[in-house]
Amino acid sequence: MIIGLSMAFLAFVVDQFSKWQTAVFFVNEESPKAITSFFNLVEAWNTGVSFSLFDDGGVWGAVALSIFALLVVVFLLSWLRHETSPLVQAALGLIIGGALGNVVDRLRFGAVYDFLDFHYRGWHWPAFNAADSFICIGAFLIIVHSLVNHKKSSLKEIVK
Q1: From CA 60, how far away is CA 4, in angstroms rounded?
Q2: 73, burial (CB in 10 Å: exposed 0-12, middle 13-18, buried 19+)
Q3: Could you read off the pLDDT of 16-27 as tens digits, one per residue?
Q4: Which domain holds residue 113?
Q5: Cα separations (Å) of 62 from 34, 43, 68, 117, 148?
Q6: Which sequence positions are flagged as catalytic?
Q7: C-alpha–C-alpha distance, residues 95 and 137, integer Å
Q8: What contacts 24+ positions apart, CB below 8 Å, involve 63-72?
Q9: Which of 24, 40, 15, 21 has its CA nearest to residue 126?
Q10: How many domains are contained in the chain?
Q11: Which helix (H) or strand (E) holds 109?
Q12: Pairing relation of β-strands 123-124 and 39-46?
C-alpha cells in the first residue's frame, strides 16, 4: 500500500506544482505560448470532465463532479488496500493523486486548470494537465497488467 500512497502523493504534488508554475509563467506571457511546432502552453479552465463534457453545471456541477471523484478515490483506496501487485499499486496511486489534484482545482476555482496543448496542422487535442496524464497512465498500466495476467492465467489452465 505504501507504493500506491507514495505515488498518489507524488502525482498530487507534481500536478499542483506544475499548475502553479504555469500560472506564474502566464503572469508575463500571453496564452497560447508556442513551445514547439506541435506543442503550446495555454491557459484553459475546464468546468466539466474529460474534454469539457458536462461543462455547464456551474458551481453545483463542480461540487457534484468533486463528490463523484472523491467517491472514486475511496473505491480506489479500498482496492489499493488489498492489491498485491506493486505495478497496480503504483498505477492506482497515479490515478488517486491525479483525481485529487483535479478535485482541489474544482473546489478552489470551480474548474480545472489545463495548460498542455498538443496540435498538428491546426488540429488540437483538448488541453489537459499533469493530473489528467497521471490518470491516463495509471489506467493504461492497470489494463496492461490485467491483459498480461489474464494471458498467464489462461496459459496455466491450458497446461493443466
Answers
A1: 31
A2: buried
A3: 999 999 999 999
A4: 2-159
A5: 30, 19, 10, 23, 37
A6: 114, 132
A7: 8
A8: 63/106, 63/107, 65/106, 66/103, 66/106, 66/107, 69/99, 69/100, 69/102, 69/103, 69/106, 70/103, 72/99
A9: 40
A10: 1
A11: helix 86-109
A12: unpaired
User: What percentage of the chain reaches a pLDDT higher than 70?
Assistant: 87
CA atoms in the 13 A half-sphere facing the CB of 90: 7
The secondary structure of residue 122, as a DSSP letter, is T
Question: How many whole angstroms separate alpha carbon 89 and alpha carbon 149?
Answer: 15
Show the cell assigned to 111.
474548474
**Mean pLDDT along residues 30-40:** 95
| DSSP characters over 17-81 | HHHHHHHHHTTSSPSSEE-SSSEEEEEEEE-SSGGGTTTT-HHHHHHHHHHHHHHHHHHHHHHHH
CB 136 within 8 A of CB 49: no
Instruction: Determine the Cα angle at 35 with ends 124 and 13, to 5°.
Output: 85
- What span, in angstroms and rounded, lies between the C-alpha atoms of 34 and 58? 31
Residue 155 has pLDDT above 50, yes or no: no
Question: Per-residue pLDDT for 156 more than 70?
Answer: no
Amino acid at 22: T
Return the pLDDT at 60. Answer: 74
